[in-house]
Amino acid sequence: MNQSTPFSPSRTVAALTLAGILPFLGLGLLHTLMPDWQPLGISPLSWLAGYSLAIASFMAGTLWRPDQAPGVLIGSNLLTLCAWVLGVWQPVLWPMGMALIFGAIYLTERQVLKRTENYLRLRRRATGTVIACLLGVQLTVLP
After folding, report:
1. Contact 24, 129 (CB under 8 A)
2. Where does the sequence pass through the membrane (predicted)?
3. 28 CB contacts (<8 Å, ≥6 apart)?
4. What are 64-114's pLDDT values in tens digits?
C-alpha cells in the first residue's frame, strides 16, 4: 500500500455510506421528476423499492454478532421480514413503512452495538437522509 494514501476505515465507511445514500436521493428525485421513465422497463419507484429492501436487509444483518442477545437477533430478522412483507403486501405504504424500519434499525444499532460518536453521527445523518427521501416519495404515491 502506498504510504501517501494510508488505509482509513473511517474514510472508507464514510465513502460507502455516502455511496449507499446516493441511490435513495437519485431514485427519489427521478420518481418525482420523471415517474414514467422506465430504464430496463422498471420505474424509478420500483428500483427504489428493491434497493430499499436490499439495504434494509443488509443493515439489519449488521446487527448480528456471535455474542448478541437472542432478542436482537430475532428482532433484526423480524425487521427484515416486515420490510419484505410490506413491499409485497402494501405497495402504497411501503415508503413510510421502510422509513420506520430504517429508523428502527438505527435505534437498535445505537442501543446494542458499541460505536464511536463519529460513526453514530454518520449513521444518524445517513438514516435521516434516507428517511426524508422515503417520506418524500410517500407523499407522491398516496392515492
Report:
1. yes
2. 12-33, 45-64, 71-87
3. 44, 48, 133, 134, 136, 137
4. 888 888 888 898 999 999 998 988 877 788 999 999 999 999 999 898 888
- Cα(32)–Cα(30) distance, rounded to whole angstroms? 5
Q: With 0-12 CB in 10 A as exposed, 13-18 as middle and 19+ as buried, what is 79?
A: buried
Question: How is the chain split into domains, by residue range?
Answer: 9-141
Report in angstroms the alpha-carbon separations of 123 from 76, 91, 131.
17, 27, 12
Burial class (CB in 10 A: 0-12, 13-18, 19+), 72: middle
What is the amino acid identity at position 125?
R
Alpha-helical (H) ranges within 34-89 are 44-61, 70-89
Give pTM, 2 decimals.
Answer: 0.87
- Residues in the chain, total: 143
Residues 6+ apart with CB under 8 A from 122: 13, 14, 17
In terms of Cα–Cα distance, which of 128, 98, 140, 129 is closest to 22? 129
pLDDT computed for residue 115 by the predictor: 84
